[in-house]
Amino acid sequence: MKPTPQSLSGLWPFIRPYRWQVAIAGIFLLLAAATTLAFPWALRTLIDQGLGEGASTEVLAAKFVELFLVAVALAVFSAARFYMVSWLGEKITVDLKNKVYAHVLRQSPTFFESTQSGEVLSRLSSDATLIQTVVGSSLSMGLRNLVMGLGAMAMLVWTNPWLMFQVMAVLALVVFPSVYLGRRVRRLSRASQDRAADSSAMASEVLNAISVVQSYTAENRETQRFADSIAQALGTSLRRVRARSLLVGFIIVASSAALLWGLYLGALSVRAGTTSAGELGQTVVYVILLASAFAVLGEVYGDVLRAAGATERLMELLHTQSDVQSPVHPQHVPWPENGSSLVLRDVTFNYPSRLQQQALNGLSGQVDPGQTVAIVGPSGAGKTTLFALLMRFYSPQQGEVLLDGIPIDQMDLHDLRQRIGVVPQEAVVFSGTVMENIRYGKPDASDQEVHAAAEAAFAETFIAELPQGFDTYLGDRGVRLSGGQRQRIAIARAMLKNSPMLLLDEATSALDANSERMVQAALEKAMQGRTTLVIAHRLATVQKADCIWVLDHGRLVERGTHAELMARAGLYASLAALQFAA
């Protein structure tokens, strides 16, 4: 569907809080337009009364002062209008960005399975910037020129109806070709933006995988691919420039023709004695105002349509409802002192993108407070899926999950996730300092608490060797750290959170043997007094677990200690035999 100006109505909730500022901006807009329309009248009195026969120098000076005062008033009102509408554009855009970003952060992973993060970022940047330009500039300019155009038309009809009729006929010949050329310019502008976005996306992808590119000596290939993409964008941009140049040239020629035609007819009237020189000057200026208003309105309308499309895309994000939400009346339960209890009752789950394939199939089990349970199984058995359900990133199609005796779908999402600490297999480090990354687990933690968590995770030694210690900036995705160091930062973050349940997704997978021994000791210390679930691909890390769950195709096929499962000679024993033999 093509966007229409009505689509901008989606911005009304963001405009409503500033309705008084909008009213003030509207008053200044009307005053600026009225002052502009008064300028030709002041020019007419200057010519007829200040330059007429018998006019004194004092009268001439007074008329110039009147003209100057009109110019001063126009400057004041225009500056006030510009400030108010620019202020509104900035404030409304900031509110819109904050609202959309906060809404997107609360979406479940199902949303991101069908929506690329790059698309969301594009809407937050380019679409929001376009709306800011229209709300803070183009829309006000269009309204001002609309008022001026209608006012100039009314003045022309009042002062010289026959001349107005002829000028409108000439302007009609200007408008229709301008609209056609304007549409072509808009299409090429959008195509140019798309090609530029393609180049940016390509560069972002390559830079994020620079080590892979260099390891395959693909620098020249990627350079050429980027150059080809830029060349396509350049070709589209040049076509847009040619079309816009043609449009500008046509408008100048056509507007000049309308102006000169009106001036010629006015000159004939002056020679015939039916019109004064001042009236001619007034008419010429009104014709100029009318012609320029038509030209500006055509361009503004194109910007409004683009902003309407951007508004529709942002409203789509805002109207998207997450399939996982907190209940209206959540149940609250005090935090347990010795770890949380967990009960799974016949849990069945299919990912929304793979409805025909069951990730979990009738999974049932119980974990007592303070117990450590290791979860093992072949790839695709459902181990990571179980963690995703515990965090309520998804909701099961059947069955229920109880944490501390309460179904998690009846708990507030914030309360639920505060009770669970997670150390993922791929440690996530943000582009901040070491202190900020560890404190992410507990934003109000003191420096002493952060240092204690780092020491418990055996991270303080390598942190002390960094240039600024805990204040060292880690770069994009923690590029200044090794894989093992990033993992220890993630472990320290989870330990600082101090939740009653801890989820470890192969938390020591990125560590060398020495670091693994240290972190394993730290994790054993962290497990004390809390319930821990450990996903383990290396079976040597789970032999000390209180209980081991063996998953296969989403089912719990075995459970017990390491010795019990080895004695059964089942799936666990076969997995262990393969690893220990290797």
Could you describe the 3D structure shown?
It is a single chain. The protein is of the alpha/beta class. The chain has 2 domains: 5-319, ABC transporter transmembrane region fold; 342-581, Rossmann fold, CATH 3.40.50.300. Helices cover 63% and strands 10% of the residues. It has 18 helices and 10 strands. Helix 2 runs antiparallel to helix 3 and helix 3 (57-105) packs antiparallel against helix 5 (117-159). The longest helix has 54 residues, at 219-272. It is elongated and about 120 Å long. The mean pLDDT is 79.
Defining key terms:
single chain; 582 residues; ABC transporter transmembrane region fold; Rossmann fold; 63% helix
By CATH's scheme, which homologous superfamily of the largest domain applies? ABC transporter type 1, transmembrane domain
Order of helices and strands: HHHHHHHHHEEEHEEHEHHHHEHEEEHH
User: Major beta sheet, specifics?
Assistant: 6 strands, mixed
Beta-strand content bin: 5-15%
**Strand line-up of the largest beta sheet:** 6-7-8-3-9-10
CATH class category of the largest domain: Mainly Alpha
Q: How many DSSP E strands? A: 10
When the domains are counted, the total is 2
Report the C-alpha radius of gyration, rounded: 35 Å
Basic shape: elongated
How far apart the termini lie comes to 60 Å
Q: Give me the CATH fold name of the largest domain.
A: ABC transporter transmembrane region fold
- Average predicted local confidence, pLDDT: 79
Low-confidence stretches: none
The assigned structural class equals alpha/beta
